[in-house]
Structures
1.
Amino acid sequence: MEGGTRCAALNAAMARKGMDYSQLAAAINVSETRVKDICAGKFRATNAEFRLMAKVLEIPDTVENTGVHATTA
């Protein structure tokens, strides 16, 4: 995975699962560009994208959707 994300937990989860941006994008049914933009902080994930990424990466659903984790409707 080139670059990395703004979120250390997301970086760690992607590494643990052996996933790159394209694999994560395919798993949540969005473009690789969309995933890269979300991970870079260029755009905010929707609530659905946030939850799907957490599910795919096996991140507990206890992360608040605030601050750098804020989502859009």
2.
Amino acid sequence: MEPHESCNIRKLWRNLADQRESLLADQDQIFQSVIDRNEKLEEEVAELRRDLYVWKKAYAECVAASEQSVEEMTMLKARVSHLDCLKDQSPIVLGLIDGDGNIFRKELLELGLQGGRLAAQLLTDRILGYQQRQDQSGGRFQLWVYIFLNMKGLQQTLVASNVCNQDAFEAFVTGFNQANPRFTINDVHAGKEAADVKIKEYLLSYARFTHTSKIFFGGGHDNGYLHTLTELQSERLLDKIVLLKGYKRVAAELQTLLLPTLEIESLFMPEKLSVAKWSNGCNQHASPAWTVKESPAALSYSKVASSGVEYFGKQSNISISTPAGLRRPNPHLELHKNVPPPCNLFYLAQYCINGDNCQYAHDYILSPEQYDMLRVNAKKAPCPAVKKDLPCALGDNCPLGHKCPSGPECLYFSRGKCFFKGATMHVFD
């Protein structure tokens, strides 16, 4: 091979090698460009998917809102139609009763089916009779009666206290519900204040309803209804409420409202049932109204001693320590230094508006000396009613203080820091 030919071949080879390197570089660049483009497209696709999800969700919410609006519109039209119909109907008189506190008499419950019908008749006669005496227009009224209660809890309490048996109670409820299509006993089942919640809502709704003439409210045993009633008072609707008495004693704070009262003596029990909580396991879910009068925490020393309880060395005919669920204050501490200290209202006024949520104790057995000590200490706390310059429903029987213990010369009062803030609490004759 000639030298010049060999030289040409090497040049050609170098050119081919350079072209190969250039093509490989171009290929790498193309591949990288494709990869970068693909990653960018994947990001765009992911973003589009997110946007699509958001728009789909927004669309679904709009559809749901539209459907709800249509449903609400249908309901409103039905209500308007119903109100138009009511224009030509008689005004409503409502009986709204807390059945856990207003308990029908034993004589009625024992009659079963017939007793339920008789109870409905008594309610009808007395409520409409009262309304017709108050309303001289001579118009007619529609009477509706709703009773809310814990059916199982009340039934167990009635059976445990020998008021009636289970069959009689169930028959009574059936008889009452059958007596009038507008009368019903509603079971709210177990649960703290389950009946109260429904009654409060019914009370507010019906009182605000212009077609309601009067509401006969059977919940006077429970201070828990005070807030609802004062709300109606602020709306100037309290004149629609008549207190349908069950127990003879109306809750102290409700007495301050001075509501007109209807008492049907032959209908409801005048006193609270006296079933001790520790004597029957089936009463665990009973309303406090069924057990307060003779509950373990309300027992005085004399009651405990008469039943044979040993109390700080004092013993009656049987020597036992302490009933289940009760305890004794620590004899080495002052009464108010026990943790928690006893509740003044529970022991001295036989009621406590806080019930099981009270921060003070309801389960002590107190001696006569400890009751005297409790009375003295209770007077050191201001009465909430007098503190707000309101009349106290308990008057001189109120366990709390109506006057500052330090008298008119109270240093804290002169500095504006005394807890006895009522206008008359530092005025002494």
3.
Amino acid sequence: MMLAQLMQDMQDPEMMREAQKMMNDPAFQERMKQLTDNPQFKEHMAKTNEMMKDKDKMAEMEEKMKGRLEEGKKDLEEFKKKNAELEAEDKKKSSSSGDVKPKKKNQKPKTSSKKKGKKN
């Protein structure tokens, strides 16, 4: 579902502007430099690049990703539908109850704005 959400977010111009702002931030750039300088990261990237040279392996990975993306889209749509139903239900409950807080029986009305214990 996260992959499907990412793909949708990448179509949103506002999200992409925010991502661009983040990537232009010097603190973000420093964190990325630290990440890419990490020997484990370099090793992983080398293995990934080597694996990408194998056309059969790439085709297999691409099919897996397509399947995961489709599954994620379905999950995301299901989540959005359930969320909309819950919001509609909450809205219906709040509109039927009126959202008016009942006044407490023993609540006294305020009579003065003067502070207690202060004499004029």
4.
Amino acid sequence: MSSLQGYIDRRVLLVLQDGRAIVGVLAGFDQKSNVVVSDCKERVYGLDEGVEEIPLGLYLVKGDMIALIGEIDDAIDQAVDLSTIRAEPITPIRY
């Protein structure tokens, strides 16, 4: 839990168990690993078109829905042309 403290006010990528990829600034978290992400966008991947970014604004994500949290290097992220990336969407986790 305390490892999330280092990500506060930094851009992060959340990969959720339902396959969504959320990018935004980590604003806060609690003891259950629920997180608040500000200025966030969902990145939707597809094989036919480039990555689509859907603005979400301020977003609350339940901790048990999060599969991965990682910090994004802004310089590298801005240098990537998302319209040229083709990828299969991440499939949801099945129990």
